[in-house]
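LAB NOTEBOOK - FOLDING QUEUE
OPERATOR: T.R.
BATCH SIZE: 2
PURPOSE: Compare the predicted structure-token outputs for two unrelated chains run back to back under identical settings.
PRIORITY: normal
REVIEWER: second-year student, initials M.K.

ITEM 1
FIELD SEQUENCE / FIELD STRUCTURE:
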Amino acid sequence: YQRRVHGEQAREGLFKMTVRLRKTRKLRGKTTFGHGRIIKNRKHSGGRGNAGGQHHHRINFDKYHPGYFGKVGMRHFHLTQQKYFCPTVNLDKVWSLVTEQAREHYAKNQNEKKIPVIDCVKAGYYKVLGKGLLPKQPVIVKAKFFSRIAEEKIKAVGGACVTVA
């Protein structure tokens, strides 16, 4: 009869399982101690970790991890990320790059020939994307790149896209 105890009593060791009730007592004299054929129950019989992926575990690797071994593509020595640095801003946020007072000032004085210029590169954005709506107010937007939809929307409100190096 084994008594299960949790908490403090178990930690203090008040209830210990008696030696005569352990499973090992029954298994004394049995050659494999309940672990099947003699060669079984060794510690790492297939090797540790991913050992044998191309040898004795090949079927498993081919079936469940296809493409694990080998190479793909070309090597690119000294790969740096500055070439791909291109922060983006959407059209619905473009007007937030200038103050609200500036937008209202140009909205009131639309009959004048002055049009606001928003320099996205100066604000830290290289590319303008076309999500969102622009107010019906002409604007000149400066950036390194424009998406096709962004360019269409800017021109639709009477603005212009200026690419900057």
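ITEM 2
FIELD SEQUENCE / FIELD STRUCTURE:
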Amino acid sequence: ALPICSQNRKVTDYFPVRRSGRKSKTEIQTEEKQRIDELIKSGKEEGMKIDFIDGKGRGVFATRDFNRGEFVVEYHGDLIEITDAKKREALYAQDSSTGCYMYYFQYRSKTYCVDATRETNRLGRLINHSKSGNCHTKLHDINTVPHLILIASRDIHAGEELLYDYGDRSKASLEAHPWLKK
């Protein structure tokens, strides 16, 4: 027969508690957000290059693999409110040699635009359109300032052109830019 103990004992009185070294989902998400914040603030754009495509112009190609869900690049430009954006768009429309690199979006119940029309060395503005692109846009908040970023929609292999759906299906746009249908 087992002796009757005068005290209740717990298993931890005999064995040390082992703590998991794994990070929680929240810790992982916080670290990833901080990593993206740093890439955006530094303007680092790695794993991509510009190449010329016959009949299409410039395009951006992966020089390394990107995993599904991974940050690819920021769509960088001037962050402006809709009233200023409409004025700029009207100005750009007067010059047929000026392309339109304006991306409108909602953030905290206001409409904003990232105007990436000005030629810079940033790559996000040169990523071409495809209805079945390998990237998608996402808003990334840094101190309540929205940043438009591109995320890999699927695994992307080195050598692939980076593409995303511009989402513009207006009749005027489709007539002016038939490639939006593809």
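REVIEWER COMMENT (ITEM 2): The CA atoms of residues 68 and 154 lie 4 Å apart.
FOLLOW-UP: none requested
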